[in-house]
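hey m, so remember when u said the tokens were messed up on ur end? i reran from scratch. heres the input so u can diff it against urs
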Amino acid sequence: MLSFDFLILLSGLGLAALAVYLFASAVFTNNANADADALAWASGDEPRKSKSALINFSRPLVHNFTLQHAFKIKSESYRTKVEKLILTSGLSQELNVDEFIGLKILWGIMAPIVLIILNFALQLGYPYWLCFALGLMGFQFPNFYCKNEKKARYISVISDLPFFIDLLALSTEAGLDFINAIQRIVDKAENSVLAGEFAIMLKDIKLGSSRADSMKELAQRLDIPEITSFVAVITDADYTGAPISIVLKDQSEQMRLERFVRAEKAGSKASQAMLIPMMVFILPAVFIMVFAPVILQFFYGGK
């Protein structure tokens, strides 16, 4: 009967052979596509530097070892889902679908295999479940990063939207048309996610896209209900011929009301979240301070 050490040895040799195969296939595949890759990078397709140091570190490894395996994943539904996640996270200039999948393969599959091989070969003594746990975390890392960026964009847009709509209403009442009013806001705003998306919308309009289509693409990139409502109201005003300034003023009042409602909900959630710490830590201390003297007097008062 085979011993456990012998099974570990066989599994280690198998993983080492798999690592050699993946390395060789990556090298030969990249050599075959070297000219195409060089032309792609020379034509200005180089991605923007990511805000994540891990992605910047991983990008050469992904392009050398896992990108060709990401190409083999042909599921249209999965690729569409990943593309939407990247788009709504504002990372379309940092990542594409293939790099996203390549990061999952690199940190979720290849990195744990390398760790298991090193752990066996060097007799490091780390538990093997730790390698699988790190692999699971690495596999979910691209999702975590995109969702965190999407959440940060949501907070920024929701904070700026009522103020921007007020400025649009004032500018249109002063005589500017809607596009010039947006252009003025884009010129004045700094480090604003919403202003950056407005700038992309203006660029699309200058390239020949209609205002309605550009605003619909804006709503798709942000995927925020308030922005979708804003786009729908402006589009309806264009079709019906309603004054933009009045529509914007009404929209501003609605946004402020929704912001007040969100603040009330956040306050109610905060009060509910405080109940558990109060019951666990504060109430026992109060009971001790109130009833401890009575209990002590009851047991030791007559002595």
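this time it looks ok to me. Residues 286 and 292 are 10 Å apart (CA to CA). if urs says something different then somethings off w ur setup not the seq
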